[in-house]
Amino acid sequence: MESFYYNTYPFFLNKGKMGQFLASQDWSNSALGNPDGWPVSLKITLGTVLGASTKMALFWGQDFLFFPNDAYAAILDNPIHSDQKAARIGHEPWALIQPLLERVWNAEAVEPFVYQSVDPFENQRYLLNFSPVTDENGVITGILSTATAFVQPSDQNQESETYDRQVTDTVPAIIWTTKPDGSCSYLNKQWYEYTGQTKAQAEGFGWLDATHPEDKDTSSKQFLEANEQHIPFHLLYRLRQHDGTYRWAIDKGSPRFDAEGNYLGMIGTVIDIHEQKLAEESLRASEAKLRSIVSTAPVAIGLFVGRDLIVENPNQTFIDIVGKGPDIVGKPLREVMPELIEQNQPFLQILDDVFTTGQRFHSYGSEVKIVQNGVMTHNIYNITYSPVFDEEGKVYAILDIAVDVTGEAKVKQALKESQHILQSMIDLAELGTYTVDLASQKLVKSPKVSSWYGLPEVTDVFASLDVIIESDRDRVFQIYKDALLPGSSGFYRMEYTIIHSQTSQRRILQTVGQVRRNLEGQPTHVDGLIRDVTSHYEAKAALEFLVQERTEELEATNEELTSSNENLAELNEQLIRSNESLEQFAYVASHDLQEPLRKIQQFSDLLSLRHRASLAEDNRLLDRIQESAQRMSNLINDLLTFSQLSTGKSNRERVNLSSVLNQVIDTLSVAIEESKASIEVMALPEIQGDQRQFEQLFQNLISNALKFSSKDILGNATVPSIRVSYQSLATNQLPFNPENRDKYARYHQVVIEDNGIGFEETYAERIFGVFQRLHSKNVFAGTGVGLAICQKVVTNHDGMIVAQGTPNQGAKFYIYLPEF
Questions:
Q1: Which residues are 458's β-sheet partners?
Q2: CA-based angle 474:477:481, to the nearest 5?
Q3: Digit-coded pLDDT (tens) for 763-813
Q4: Could you report how far apart the first and last alpha carbons of the chain are, in Å?
Q5: Residue 540 — φ and ψ, nearest 5°?
Q6: Is 695:664 a contact under the CB 8 Å cutoff?
Q7: What's the CA dihedral at 165, 166, 169, 170 to 10 degrees?
């Protein structure tokens, strides 16, 4: 500790034996703590006391911690002791001095104390004066004591003023006294020698003229206030010397009283503290600057004291890196960072080795596992452990400087990985690389380029030029030289042919290169990539031959296509005629085929009306004739509708689907009422289409939902429940990939669902075929054409219909129509 405190704090430095002794103490466990936290007033006063040649001592705090200088200590009994309590002055005098100190601490005036020297060869007594030390707020923080030699006159009754002044003139300090009104009544000769004033100039209040003009008013005010209140005072001002220069001085005084308690004035001393004052100011500035630099440094700085590596003076970066908060000061490193042991890290052993050997330790890029704010981190640091030596050359502490280079390490690792990836890409692309050192004219080739050339990996530039075929050589060299010219971008691209120096194999190479320049713009290197394009040119030649061959084949094919187009035109005319025939068939089916059916229905109705009673059981045969005729009529109508839809003809107009659906519900109102069905309908959009076709679409789907109702466990038909819902979907939301995906951005989705008998999913596509039925006509009536018609309607409008079903739970029909 001695060397650290002694060299770190100027108020210990060069302050005699007591300075060295005080610096050797371990203050960390004392009431004052480490000296870097001591009050400024303590540091200044202590530096003044220890550095003074006169006998001075400081009693600090209410415990009266005792700090004598060498001169003061010489008159005491055993003043040097690790316990700095004032009682170490000696038991008998302490019993007398302690009450005086307590009175001064309570701002009371006290008389000087006569102290007998302990030197058996010196029959010397001293006057011990006591005055308070205050901080910048005027609060008493300590007591300053001075000791002046006192010679008792041989005549015990002699108390003349002349004798007293002769005594004070022998004291190596400025001593003064005042009258009750505060005017100076006496100054010893040291004042006049120091200031150059005459007695006439100094006495009264003339002594204030020797103070600095900037300090005069303040000093005068404080002195007069203390004189008026009869209390001790402490002034710090600049005092003019006889040569006109000013030096800092401390002026301390205490009130004097006679035996009856009458106030007699002040008595005090003036001490030159100029060097100490400047040193303290320099110290404060230096300490502030150093602490500012250390505390704000972007690197971690801390001190490990003793074998136990006690953490001292860490800066904020150090505290942040350790991640345990600011309470790490004064604790062993192994307690502060237990993860160094738990994670089996080497740093405690390294620090112990530095302490033992005194050798500095450097480590670059070391991973340190640190629990920062409860989270284990794995960061990278550059670490320096520097031993700190005491005056005897022994290591007493280690300075730790750590730089977090995690970001830099990550960048290096990323660069390394990027280089590895780049090299892998170069290898995968079957590329070669080369670099030219222009200073030496050496060409360094990758192994791949070296194998292509048949040359060593390192050759001069001209040796590599020699393997280029003669017809390409001058062109290649000229392009290379042009890239080196001032003002050039330095980039080049070219192709050339080489002949292997040993096997004479020819290769066609393609290269790109870039010139590197220094800060002065002078070319220094050329870097490049090479690709073997021999197979490319061979493939190109083969492709050209193939293209020529295919061209001839295409010409023959075009002739065949011309003939085919003529055939297609003829087929198109046949298709038109076929459609016309289909329309005629539709007319015939609508009129000629329906007419015989109507006759059958009419005659069967007449027979039933006239002869039902006489036919008895044969009425059943008559009913079957009528039902078959009706089914035949329905089938013809459905086929007619399907054939009309198959022509693709439709009337395009704005169609309100909600209106169409409401009309269909109205048409089917009788069936709805009979089945007691419930129908829930959402609002549907307007679209562009054929209204008649949408009526057929909705009527077929709603009537199917009514017809294919399910039954409960007793065989009774359940009440149909039908729901029609709608939403708009983006094309990419569709559950299928439409053929015209790029044509429409959005689609209408209309869903019709029921609670009927449903169907197996395997029939989801089959049910849209013509004449496809999943049930016998005896169970559910119908022609098997209705859903085929629905699909035709949706297809005619560039849409799609999808069915989903679950047996005995119902069916859903999803209709997707494009938004125009």
A1: 444
A2: 135
A3: 778 888 765 555 545 545 555 677 888 888 888 888 889 999 888 888 999
A4: 91
A5: -65, -45
A6: yes
A7: -140
